[in-house]
C-alpha cells in the first residue's frame, strides 16, 4: 500500500500529461516515416492534382511538343519498328530544318549496324549509314538526347551501336546525350517523384528529361515531385504527319509548329510502354486509361523547363505542425477540443491546398493522425479517470446510500442542484419490538454489533427487491420502493421484501438462539401513495429522502403492529395492488395519530 501511494505521489497529473505528450511526439515522428501514411498522402496528393487541374488550371510559358509513333504510322511503313532508321533520320532532318531547340527521343537506338540489310524500295538506302548521317547532320545545330533502357536480365543498360554513341557524344559535356528513361515508382506503382540518383539502377542522376532540359540551357540538379498541375492534357503530333510535311518541303509550316521548342519523340500506341500517372495526360484517351510513358517524360519536362517542380515541406516543418496537433492531448473539455480539432483539420487541408498553389506539397496525413491520436488518447484517459473516480466514489459511499441512489449519483443524475419530484411510491417502516428493554441488559458494543448484523440482512433484502433505504432510526428502518429505480408495482415489491425479511429474521433468530442470545421480533408497516423524492438539506450536508403524508402514514401503520398482533400491517391502498390480497386479514379502520382512521390489513407468515 505504501509503495502504491509513493508511485501515485510521484506520477502526478502534470507528469503524466508531460509523458503522454512526449509519447505523442515520438509517434508523430514515426508517422512521418511510416509507409502506410505515405500511401495515404499519395492519394491525397493525387486528389489535389485532379482538383487543381479542374478548378485552378496552371498555364505554362514553355511546353514541350510530343511527336508520337502510333499504330497508323506502323501501318503506313513497310519496315518493322526496329528498322525505322530511315524514318528516324528524316525526322531528325525535319526537326533541324524547323529550328527546334532540342530533340529528345524516348526511344533506344539500335544496338547493331544492320550493314547487310538494304531496303528493297526503289530509293534503296543503307539503314545504318542513313541514320548515322541524319544524326551527324542534326547535331551540328540541334542538340539530340536519346533514351537508354535498363536490361533487367543482364543488370545493365542496353548499349547502342558505337557509331551512334560516338556521334551523340560529340555534343559536349553540357548534357549527357544518352540518358536513362527509368522512373521512380511509388508503392502503388504510380510515377510522382523526380527520377534522381536513388531511382536510377546505376545510381547516377542522369534521366532523359533532366538531360533534355540541360540541353535546353537549364541546370541539371533537381529534386522534388513532378508537378502534374501544370499545363493541359497533351495532344501529340503523329510522326507520319511530320515526315509528310518534310517530304513536301513545307519548311515554313514546320518552323511555325516546332521552331524554338523542345520536341520529344516517343511511342503513343495503345499497348506499348504504358504507365500509371496521378492524372490523365493523354488528351486522346479516356480519363481512366493508362498513359504512354512518353507523357511522363513530357510532364517532367514541363516541370523542369518552367522551373516548377513540386517541393515537399521539410520534415522539420511537418514535425512542428504535428507537435502543434499533439497539443490536443492537453485540456479537459473533449467537446471543445473536438470542435477545435475539426476546425484545425479543415484548416490543415486548406493550408495544404494553398501551399499547392505555391508549388509546395504539405502532406497532411501524419499531422492529422497525430491530432486524432492526441484527441482520442485524451478522451480515453479522461474516460479512465472518470471510471476510477466513479469506482472510488462508489466505494466511498456504497455503505452510506442505497445502490440505486449511488448509481444515480455516479451517473450525475442526482446532486444538490437536482429538483425534487412527486412520485408514486410504497413506503416501508420496520422496527424491532422490545429493543429498549434489550438494550438495558446488554453492553453498548453488543447492541451495536447486533444491530449491524440485523441491518446487514434486512438491507440486502430491501435492495434485492428494488427498494431504497432512506435511513436507519435507532433500531428502525425506513425504505421506499419506486424511486429512483422505477418499478411496475412498488407495493408488490415492498410486500415481497417484507415477507422475505420475516423469513430471514427466522433464520437469524435460530443463530441467536444457538449463541444463547435473545431472539428478535419486528413489525413492518406499508403504505402507498405519492411522495416528494429528492435531495433535502444544505449544500454542505444533504440526503436523498422521501417526504409527505405517505411517509407519515406508513410510520403510523408500523406502530399498529404490536396492538393488532400481526408482524406486517398494510393500508388498503397497498392491498389493492397485491396479487396475494386474499391472504391478508382485514382489521377494520384504525385510528392513526395525527390523522383520521384508515382501513388496514394484517399478514402473518404461515407456520410450518
TrEMBL record:
Guanylate cyclase domain residues: 426-558
InterPro entries, per the entry: A/G_cyclase (IPR001054), Adenylyl/Guanylyl_Cyclase_3/4 (IPR050697), CHASE2 (IPR007890), Nucleotide_cyclase (IPR029787)
Keyword terms, alphabetized: Membrane, Transmembrane, Transmembrane helix
Annotated transmembrane regions: 309-331, 338-358, 364-384
Domain of life: Bacteria
Record-linked PANTHER family: ADENYLATE CYCLASE, TERMINAL-DIFFERENTIATION SPECIFIC (PTHR43081:SF1), ADENYLATE CYCLASE, TERMINAL-DIFFERENTIATION SPECIFIC-RELATED (PTHR43081)
Descriptive protein name: Class 3 adenylate cyclase
Lineage of source species: Bacteria, Pseudomonadati, Pseudomonadota, Betaproteobacteria, Burkholderiales
Amino acid at each position: 500500500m505504501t509503495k502504491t501511494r509513493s508511485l501515485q505521489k510521484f506520477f502526478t497529473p502534470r507528469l503524466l500529461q508531460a509523458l503522454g505528450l512526449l509519447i505523442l511526439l515520438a509517434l508523430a515522428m514515426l508517422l512521418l516515416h511510416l509507409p502506410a501514411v505515405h500511401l495515404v498522402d499519395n492519394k491525397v496528393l493525387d486528389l489535389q492534382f485532379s482538383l487543381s487541374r479542374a478548378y485552378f488550371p496552371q498555364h505554362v510559358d514553355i511546353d514541350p511538343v510530343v511527336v508520337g509513333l502510333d499504330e497508323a504510322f506502323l501501318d503506313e511503313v513497310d519496315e518493322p519498328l526496329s528498322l525505322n532508321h530511315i524514318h528516324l533520320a528524316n525526322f531528325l532532318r525535319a526537326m533541324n530544318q524547323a529550328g527546334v531547340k532540342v530533340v529528345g527521343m524516348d526511344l533506344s537506338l539500335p544496338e547493331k549496324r544492320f550493314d547487310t540489310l538494304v531496303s528493297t524500295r526503289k530509293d534503296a538506302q543503307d539503314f545504318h549509314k542513313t541514320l548515322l548521317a541524319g544524326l551527324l547532320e542534326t547535331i551540328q545545330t540541334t542538340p539530340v538526347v536519346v533514351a537508354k533502357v535498363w536490361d533487367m536480365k543482364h543488370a545493365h543498360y542496353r548499349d547502342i551501336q558505337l557509331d551512334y554513341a560516338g556521334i551523340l557524344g560529340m555534343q559536349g559535356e553540357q548534357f549527357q546525350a544518352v540518358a536513362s528513361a527509368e522512373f521512380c515508382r511509388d508503392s502503388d506503382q504510380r510515377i510522382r517523384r523526380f527520377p534522381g540518383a536513388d531511382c536510377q539502377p546505376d545510381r547516377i542522376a542522369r534521366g532523359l528529361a533532366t538531360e533534355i532540359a540541360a540541353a535546353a540551357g537549364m541546370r541539371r540538379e533537381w529534386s522534388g515531385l513532378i508537378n502534374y498541375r501544370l499545363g493541359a492534357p497533351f495532344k501529340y503530333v503523329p510522326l507520319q504527319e511530320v515526315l509528310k510535311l518534310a517530304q513536301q518541303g513545307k519548311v515554313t509550316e514546320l518552323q511555325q509548329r516546332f521552331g524554338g521548342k523542345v520536341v520529344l519523340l516517343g511511342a503513343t500506341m495503345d499497348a506499348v510502354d504504358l504507365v500509371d500517372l496521378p492524372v490523365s495526360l493523354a488528351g486522346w484517351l479516356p480519363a481512366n486509361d493508362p498513359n504512354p510513358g512518353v507523357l511522363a517524360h513530357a510532364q517532367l519536362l514541363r516541370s523542369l523547363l518552367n522551373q516548377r517542380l513540386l517541393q515537399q515541406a521539410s520534415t522539420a516543418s511537418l514535425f512542428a505542425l504535428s507537435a502543434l496537433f499533439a497539443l490536443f492531448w492537453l485540456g479537459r473539455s473533449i467537446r471543445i477540443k473536438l470542435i477545435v480539432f475539426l476546425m484545425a483539420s479543415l484548416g490543415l487541408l486548406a493550408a495544404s491546398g494553398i501551399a499547392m498553389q505555391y508549388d509546395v506539397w504539405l502532406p497532411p496525413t501524419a499531422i492529422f493522425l497525430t491530432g486524432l491520436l492526441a484527441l482520442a488518447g485524451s478522451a480515453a484517459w479522461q474516460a479512465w479517470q472518470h471510471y476510477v473516480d466513479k469506482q472510488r466514489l462508489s466505494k466511498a459511499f456504497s455503505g452510506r446510500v442505497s445502490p440505486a441512489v449511488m448509481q444515480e449519483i455516479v451517473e450525475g443524475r442526482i446532486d444538490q442542484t437536482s429538483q425534487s419530484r412527486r412520485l408514486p411510491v410504497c413506503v416501508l417502516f420496520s422496527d424491532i419490538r422490545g429493543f429498549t428493554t434489550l438494550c438495558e441488559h446488554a453492553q453498548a458494543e453488543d447492541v451495536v454489533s447486533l444491530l449491524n448484523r440485523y441491518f446487514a440482512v434486512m438491507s440486502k433484502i430491501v435492495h434485492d427487491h428494488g427498494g431504497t433505504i432512506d435511513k436507519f432510526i435507532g433500531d428502525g428502518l425506513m425504505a421506499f420502493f419506486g424511486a429512483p429505480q422505477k418499478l411496475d408495482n412498488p407495493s408488490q415489491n415492498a410486500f415481497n421484501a417484507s415477507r422475505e425479511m420475516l423469513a430471514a429474521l427466522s433464520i437469524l433468530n435460530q443463530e441467536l438462539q444457538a449463541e444463547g442470545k435473545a431472539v428478535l421480533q419486528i413489525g413492518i408497516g406499508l403504505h402507498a401513495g405519492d411522495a416528494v423524492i429528492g435531495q433535502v438539506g444544505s449544500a454542505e450536508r444533504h440526503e436523498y429522502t422521501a417526504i409527505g403524508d405517505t411517509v407519515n402514514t406508513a410510520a403510523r401503520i408500523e406502530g399498529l403492529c404490536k396492538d393488532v398482533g400481526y408482524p406486517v400491517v398494510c393500508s388498503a391502498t397497498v392491498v389493492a395492488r397485491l396479487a396475494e390480497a386474499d391472504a391478508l386479514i382485514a382489521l377494520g379502520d384504525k385510528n392513526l395519530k395525527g390523522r383520521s382512521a384508515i382501513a388496514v390489513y394484517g399478514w402473518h407468515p404461515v407456520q410450518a
